[in-house]
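Q: Convert this sequence to structure tokens.
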Amino acid sequence: MTNKMATLTKGEYIYGDGMMSMKVLQRTQTIVRYQNIYGDVYYGIVEDGEILQLSSTFNEIINNELKFDDIRVKVEDVKLLEPVRPQKVINFGWTYAAHAKETGGKANLKEPFLFLKPTSSLIPNEEEIILPSLSLTNQVEMEGEVALIIGKRGKNINEKEALDYVFGCTIFNDVTARDLTKTDPQFTRGKGFDTFGPLGPWMVTGLDPTNLRIVTTLNGRVVQDGNTNQMSLSIPYLISWISQVMTLEPGDVLATGSPSGSCPMKSGDVVSVEVENIGKLRNYVK
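A:
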């Protein structure tokens, strides 16, 4: 087999059985989960507009065991899927003081406001956010966020070691029926509709999640512009805090909260959330 991975200069490669297993020494990689034209689902490494297809499972990937099966595909020729299929989607609310104030919440909380989203809410990049019937809600808003993907099992995690449990970062849009979260005693209904959890387009390893700019646009107009360094509760604290409550498992998604600027969406709108060093998550409202 010929070496088609020459551009990945920082790695050690072991050949055998018609595929290449590689232990990648560099920590920063863009990893995507996608479906090809035949309906098969793979993980891959994104590089220069192409995907280097892997036969590795998610557990192998988080253990840095990347099996390259000698196939390259163009990003535009495949359907991008959610980067992971998590056991749980954990959401932290009101972690930005200005967003807490604009939505009727409490700013500068000493402990995070916690809620969960069902995995049935998740959709990938470029798919449609389906607005519920007007009989259920008439105020659906976007919330652009940085999301963390957990890479190893953790319980009672020390805050100083918390970032070691993060495998990678991705982008999340915490779509919210704002009228329902203001009237219901808890957030499940307002946050839990199908398609209310756009996630993607991929995950990037090796980033510092505590200093990432988030820009959300609605039909090309900037409506949110913030940075995770503005959070009133630190990301290591959030990881440590939630691990006292529930065990974190590989693949779990932790959405870290939204900066100010959340506003209503209507059918026909296009919403994009862009995070520096990750990319852009774009979805269409229907």
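The first strand starts at residue 11 and ends at 16.
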